[in-house]
């Protein structure tokens, strides 16, 4: 007898094999940077807990070493957010693999509590305000794909990277890339990245649209989209194969707001497109988002949306006499 769980694993595995994205944020997401603030920062600047966790998925067929590359890992220069007379921030990037790196429940928490650093630490590096890393790429690795956790949910190897804001009060803005080469961004075929909570910088341009793509499995009947510190900067909109979306106002400064959306049958085993539409000319808006199902379980969202970017399917009604 084939269970629904096995079917979901097969669906995820099939989509992972046929689609991939190596850049975080990806071209599909259209955000300029991830953001992690130092622990002495004010939460109203746009980071609720000063820690960010991402996961990278590697197909079983990959036999060559992989690298996690980070762009602009230090806090200095034009990309990062200065508070005070000079940059004083330290940020630690740590990579984990092995048993429990993803399957430990604490790894999927939206807050850095308990054993969120589960698994085996494979590499760690702390950056401060070193100007030699400003606007430059650095690489962590090499890692053998089998050093990741073999996760039965995906039937793939999974690596985790935890980014921690340490001493200081500045905002560190950066990007990441899953690469097969140490000194260039070269795709790992079939790879992808996902997170359960996302801290990022919105584009500064009015009318710009950013995206996150949660995957909706067969047991979801509703989703709660939770957004922190949107600064009343625009609206959010949900697009799916069954919804063409309407604009909903979201959180204000230093505020969480929840948006609930029912899930229709056509949306099961597809991705949603949660859009952040900017309506003001404003700079330096950093926000946090996480998404849960009707049971309060955190849903992963993927740099490359599983099944592709969702498109609304118009329904043509035919009247008969």
Give your account of this protein's structure.
With 321 residues, this protein is mainly beta. Helix content is 5%, strand content 37%. The strands form four sheets. Strands 1, 2, 4, 7, 10, 12, 15, 18 and 21 form a nine-stranded antiparallel sheet that branches. Strands 3, 5, 6, 8, 9, 11 and 22 form a seven-stranded antiparallel sheet that branches. Strand 16 and strand 17 form a beta hairpin. The longest helix is centred in the first third of the chain and has 15 residues. It is globular and about 50 Å long. The N terminus and C terminus are likely disordered.
Termini separation (Å)? 45 Å
Overall pLDDT score:
91
Largest sheet data: 9 strands, antiparallel
What is the helix fraction of residues, given as a range? under 10%
Q: What are the secondary-structure elements, in order, as H or E? A: HEEEEEEEEEEEEEEEEEEEEEE
Number of DSSP E strands: 22
The geometry reads as globular
Counting helices, strands and paired strands, the structural category is: mainly beta
Report the radius of gyration as a whole number of Å. 19 Å
Summarize the structure.
With 321 residues, this protein is mostly beta strands.
């Amino acid at each position: 007898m084939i269970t629904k769980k096995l079917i979901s694993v097969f669906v995820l595995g099939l989509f992972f094999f046929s689609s991939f994205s190596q850049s975080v944020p990806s071209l599909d997401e259209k955000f300029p940077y991830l953001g992690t603030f130092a622990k002495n920062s004010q939460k109203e600047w746009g980071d609720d807990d000063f820690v960010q966790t991402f996961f990278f998925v590697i197909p079983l067929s990959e036999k060559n070493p992989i690298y996690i590359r980070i762009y602009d890992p230090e806090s200095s220069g034009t990309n990062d957010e200065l508070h005070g007379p000079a940059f004083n921030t330290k940020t630690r990037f740590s990579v984990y693999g092995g048993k429990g790196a993803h399957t430990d429940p604490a790894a999927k928490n939206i807050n850095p509590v308990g054993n969120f650093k589960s698994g085996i630490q494979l590499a760690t590096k702390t950056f401060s305000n070193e100007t030699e890393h400003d606007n430059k790429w650095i690489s962590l690795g090499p890692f053998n794909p089998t050093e990741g956790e073999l996760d039965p949910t995906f039937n793939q190897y999974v690596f985790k990277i935890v980014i921690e804001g340490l001493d200081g009060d500045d905002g560190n803005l950066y990007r990441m890339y899953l690469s097969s080469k140490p000194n260039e961004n070269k795709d790992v075929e079939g790879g992808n990245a996902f997170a359960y909570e996302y801290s990022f910088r919105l584009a500064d341009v009015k009318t710009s649209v950013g995206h996150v793509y949660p995957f909706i499995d067969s047991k979801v009947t509703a989703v709660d989209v939770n957004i922190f510190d949107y600064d009343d900067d625009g609206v959010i909109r949900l697009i799916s194969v069954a919804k063409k979306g309407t604009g909903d106002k979201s959180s204000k400064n230093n505020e969480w707001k929840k948006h609930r959306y029912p899930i229709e049958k056509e949306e099961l085993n597809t991705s949603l497109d949660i859009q952040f539409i900017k309506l003001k000319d404003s700079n330096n808006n950093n926000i946090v988002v996480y998404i849960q199902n009707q049971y309060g379980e955190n849903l992963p969202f993927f740099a490359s949306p599983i099944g592709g970017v969702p498109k609304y399917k118009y329904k043509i009604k035919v009247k008969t006499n």
